[in-house]
Every structure is written in structure tokens, then in C-alpha cells.
Write a structure and sequence with these properties.
With 215 residues, the chain is α/β, with parallel strands linked by helices. Helices cover 43% and strands 15% of the residues. The chain has helices spanning 2-13, 40-58, 86-103, 110-132, 162-165, 189-193, 197-201, 208-214, and strands at residues 69-71, 74-79, 138-148, 151-155, 159-160, 173-176, 185-186. The strands form two sheets. Strands 1, 2, 3, 4 and 6 form a five-stranded mixed β-sheet that branches. The radius of gyration is 20 Å and the shape is flat. The two termini are 35 Å apart.
């Protein structure tokens, strides 16, 4: 159940029998540089913090009113990322693994070491993409759009970078990740330039996520 289960349990302990939630633009949101552990105690701690924030926000909640509901999905075609050769991808993976082993012998901070380890994970994702690439040139992406009263919900079938949605979000516009499918990361161009794990894991070409946001 991970942090979602810990959150639901913490909410139940505070008197809320049922807890439902939606993930926002979470592609570039991570606890890997702020967490204080990798065990169930840390999961519990994060769930409790989230529950405390939720209870605080519930004091501002407005009562439900009957609203009109409209639904308007649309399909976008995004270009697939060009793959490296298997040999090139394997060479990059070995290079980053060696860098990580060397880094572990140096006096680096936990955050610095985690960043290098993240590079290894990205190279592994890139290697697996090259290994299993089937020649696909484009992907069809279905974006789900729903309006409930004044509130607009835009659903993406994957992990959308908040850097892409921040300029569109406001009091009444909300982005939802992981909706009706999972097609990995919708990363911004900066992630590709910096060779982040999320860009390596994405099946889409650089700047295709920006194109999606313009539609």
C-alpha cells in the first residue's frame, strides 16, 4: 500500500472512514532527496504528514452542490523517442555504474550520491528501452477532460511533469496523472537535456510533452 496506505490509515485514525485521492502532476516530484529513511517508519511518517495537511484543508471545504458535468476526451499523436543501439546503451550503463562505484568511495553527501545513483537507474531504463524497442514511431495518447461545475480536470495516462502544467493550473483547473492507463513519463525538454532518469524512461521524443500541452 506504500504511502497511500499509510495516509488512508492515518485519516481513519483521525475519524475519516473512507479516503479517496488523485495524483497531480507528479513526474518530477520525488522524496528521494528529502526522505529520512527507506523503511516503513518513513512511509508512516509521510502518510501522517499528508493526513495532517488534509485535515487542515478540510476545514476550508465547501459543501457539495448539484453541478453540471461534461466530458470531452481527445487523442494526441506523439513521436516516439529514437533509441540508441543496444551496444551504445550498454556502454553508457557500464560507464555510469563505474562512476557510482567510484562515488561510493568518496566523501559525498547522501543527496549527491543519490543523484549519481539516479543516473545509473536512468541508463538502465535507456538500455531496457533499446533492448525491447519494437520500431514504434508514434504513440496515441488519450487525454481525459471533465468539467464539474466550474472545476476542470485534465487526466494524463502517465506521470506529467509539474513544470509543464504549472502555468496552466489555477484555482479551477487541475491535472491528474495515472488516469486510464500508464505510458510512463511526460517529461519536459530540460529533463532530456540533463539526461534525467525520467527522460530515459519516457517513450516519447524530446519536446513532445510540450507539444501535448499546447493542444
Amino acid at each position: 500500500a506504500d504511502v497511500c496506505g499509510a495516509y488512508a490509515q492515518a485519516m481513519q485514525e483521525k475519524g475519516y472512514a473512507m479516503c479517496l485521492f488523485l495524483n497531480g502532476s507528479c513526474g518530477d516530484i520525488s522524496s528521494r532527496f528529502t526522505r529520512v529513511g527507506n523503511d516503513f517508519h518513513e512511509v508512516r511518517r509521510m502518510g501522517e504528514l499528508l493526513a495532517l495537511s488534509s485535515v487542515s484543508l478540510l476545514k476550508q471545504a465547501m459543501p457539495w452542490q448539484e453541478n453540471s458535468i461534461s466530458y470531452a476526451p481527445f487523442t494526441a499523436v506523439l513521436a516516439a523517442k529514437k533509441t540508441k543501439s543496444i551496444d551504445e546503451a550498454e556502454a553508457l550503463l557500464k560507464q555510469r555504474q563505474q562512476q557510482f562505484q567510484l562515488a561510493k568511495t568518496q566523501s559525498l553527501s547522501v543527496s549527491e550520491l543519490r543523484l549519481i545513483e539516479n543516473g545509473v537507474e536512468g541508463a538502465m531504463a535507456d538500455y531496457l528501452y533499446a533492448l525491447h524497442y519494437d520500431g514504434t514511431l508514434t504513440y496515441e495518447i488519450t487525454v481525459e477532460m471533465m468539467k464539474v461545475g466550474e472545476e476542470i480536470f485534465i487526466g494524463i495516462p502517465g506521470e506529467l511533469f509539474s513544470e509543464l502544467s504549472n502555468s496552466y493550473e489555477n484555482e479551477h483547473t487541475h491535472f491528474i496523472s495515472y488516469l486510464n492507463g500508464y505510458q510512463m513519463y511526460f517529461a519536459d525538454a530540460h529533463a532530456y537535456e540533463q539526461q534525467f532518469y525520467e527522460a530515459f524512461s519516457s517513450p516519447f521524443a524530446k519536446a513532445e510533452s510540450e507539444k501535448l500541452m499546447m493542444l
